[in-house]
Amino acid sequence: MGQITLQGVQKAFGPVHIIKGANLDIADGSFVVFVGPSGCGKTTLLRLIAGLEDVTDGRILIDGKNVVAVPPAKRGLSMVFQSYALYPHMSVRGNIGFGLKMAGLAKDEINRKVEAAAATLNLTPYLDRKPRELSGGQRQRVAIGRAIVREPKAFLFDEPLSNLDAALRVQMRIEVTRLQKQLGTTAIYVTHDQVEAMTMADKIVVLNGGKIEQYGSPLELYEKPANLFVAGFIGSPKMNFVTGDPALQRGAATIGVRPEHLKIERDGAGGWPGTIAVAEHLGSDTFLYVDAGPLGMLTARYIGELSLHTGDRVSLVPDPARIHRFDDSGNAIRS
Amino acid sequence: MARMATTRRVAVSTIAAWLCGFLIFFPILWMMLASFKTELEAFAIPPSFLFFHWTLENYATVQARSDYLHHALNSIIIAGGSTLIALLIAIPAAWSMAFSPTKRTKDVLLWMLSTKMMPPVGVLVPIYLIYKTVGLLDSRIGLVFILCLGNLPIVIWMLFTYFKEIPRDILEAARMDGATIGRELVYVLTPMAIPGLASTLLLNLILAWNEAFWTLNLSTSQAAPLTVFIASYSSPEGLFWAKLSAASTLAIAPILVLGWFSQKQLVRGLTFGAVK
């Protein structure tokens, strides 16, 4: 079991409020990603759950039990650090088995469990090597092995893939997701990369300035962002925001349209006319950055190849069903 | 062309380094040579460098006049004991200051260092009187205690700097893995700090071995270490350079050998963190 509930959790370092009252319900077995720009408090929130920081106020419940006064070791959670944080003087075997040794398990049982974990992560040939003799991806797998071997109630991941190169990151992303589904253990994963968040999560928590902006499934966040911040943060390339007449006509202060929901018309009549400033041809997609005069720069995405170039006049027509409306304070208007 | 210039530069700096090394070592070499001369040759001007009558007579005299082993044993006990106790106190102290610093940690560190700024002679009279009252004069325990206190600030400072270099994440990982503070110290922190611990231990051992002010003032015979043994040869009835040199050579030999064999560890520890 690994159900985690946050109730009014606050954290302040002196006069600085890092977490301003977080409420959250994380279901057993789900994969939850904390995402947000740097300094939004996502790592702090994770460390509060881990017990590496003390809460200033509020309650953290793990399987219904308040753990704010329980030391990290006794919370039954395991953590994978951004820097891997492997013990440099121990072999891979020693690293993975350290938690079990601390728990006082018998030697052969530790060996059996370590070897099983190593087999899952393809680390068997490296069991007797030291961390410095491993590549970045292998070190990352050792850190994950150390986390899974203890059969914790939940895994906490603190930006674990940010030190890997792009190709390895994609591969590890899939491995981590697969492993989590296979084990069925609750996971909380911190990242600033919204692609990681969208691809890995069952549910995403979007944080900004120490506040939870929205909590929901990736598609909920994509389709029904609660406010301007979430709308701008989730989705790549970013959502286009338009103010002024087009917004007022639709009864909103700001409207937002995602690049993939703008239809590109060549004749330049109707919709929002503009001139192409930059055209990116990826083969699979074409991205157009269009200078739309008073509406500012707009981004449009076309699936497939579109032979348009810098300086061409186009007209962008928003899909009426996919226009997001926001009020003066930036909150979504639902109707 | 460039290669030749590089080779020449390397050659010049190599010669310069050897020259500096020789200059620094020269007094010790001179002392060692003098210990094999007769008293007359040790005084001779101009001095003979290698071509003199080599003799072991001084060593025989020194051994006959005073008990080298007794003093050497005292040195081992005093230097070793004070170093071990200092480490036992300094490891947890440096640990807490490096990993759970408070607002006052810097002040505490500076205050400890400030105790080294005062010349020891400033507190000689009170310490002497205290030692006399409690009966610690000329006792090994008394010397262990005072040398331990004297070197403690340096030991704590050194360990503090080494501990600071250990990534916090690793200690937190240990905490998540269920290690108590004690086990964290034993299984994670100490093994990672071994190069630093080793060089601190060696340096402190050398400092304590060579310490002369307190050992000369607070001991006479019973607890007297090798420093007192050397000093007993600079007698008022005349200078016996050859014998003094023999005594000095005997006194520094153990620590010199230790330093020679541990130089790799010592250098690695002293540059810990500087080259990472």
Automatic annotation (TrEMBL), chain A:
* This protein's GO CC annotations: ATP-binding cassette (ABC) transporter complex, substrate-binding subunit-containing; maltose transport complex
All copies of the ABC transporter domain together span: 4-234
Keywords, A to Z, come to:
ATP-binding, Nucleotide-binding, Transport
| Membrane protein topology class | Peripheral membrane protein
Q: What domain of life?
A: Bacteria
- Where in or outside the cell? Cell inner membrane
InterPro entries assigned = AAA+_ATPase, ABC_transporter-like_ATP-bd, ABC_transporter-like_CS, ABC_transpr_MalK-like, ABC_transpr_MalK/UgpC-like, Mo/tungstate-bd_C_term_dom, NA-bd_OB-fold, P-loop_NTPase
Keyword Kinase applies? no
Instruction: Show the Pfam families listed in the entry.
Output: ABC_tran (PF00005), TOBE_2 (PF08402)
Q: Which family does it belong to?
A: Belongs to the ABC transporter superfamily.
Note the PANTHER family from the entry.
MALTODEXTRIN IMPORT ATP-BINDING PROTEIN MSMX, MALTOSE_MALTODEXTRIN IMPORT ATP-BINDING PROTEIN MALK
Write out the function statement from the record. Answer: Involved in beta-(1-->2)glucan export. Transmembrane domains (TMD) form a pore in the inner membrane and the ATP-binding domain (NBD) is responsible for energy generation.
**What is this protein identified as?**
Sugar ABC transporter ATP-binding protein
**Source species:** Bradyrhizobium centrolobii
From TrEMBL, chain B:
Which terms in the GO cellular component ontology are assigned?
plasma membrane
Mind telling me which Pfam families this protein's record contains?
Answer: BPD_transp_1 (PF00528)
Q: Name one GO biological process term.
A: transmembrane transport
Which membrane topology describes this protein? Multi-pass membrane protein
Indicate whether Transmembrane appears among the record's keywords: yes
The transmembrane segments are 12-33, 76-96, 108-131, 143-163, 184-209, 240-261
Q: What is its main location?
A: membrane
Q: Which PROSITE patterns match?
A: ABC_TM1
Is the Transmembrane helix keyword given for this protein? yes
Q: What range(s) does the ABC transmembrane type-1 domain occupy? A: 72-262
The highest taxon in the source lineage is Bacteria
Which compartments is it annotated to reside in? Answer: Cell membrane
Alphabetically list the UniProt keywords: Cell membrane, Membrane, Transmembrane, Transmembrane helix, Transport
Q: Which family does it belong to?
A: Belongs to the binding-protein-dependent transport system permease family.
Q: What name goes with this protein?
A: Sugar ABC transporter permease
What is the scientific name of the source organism? Bradyrhizobium centrolobii
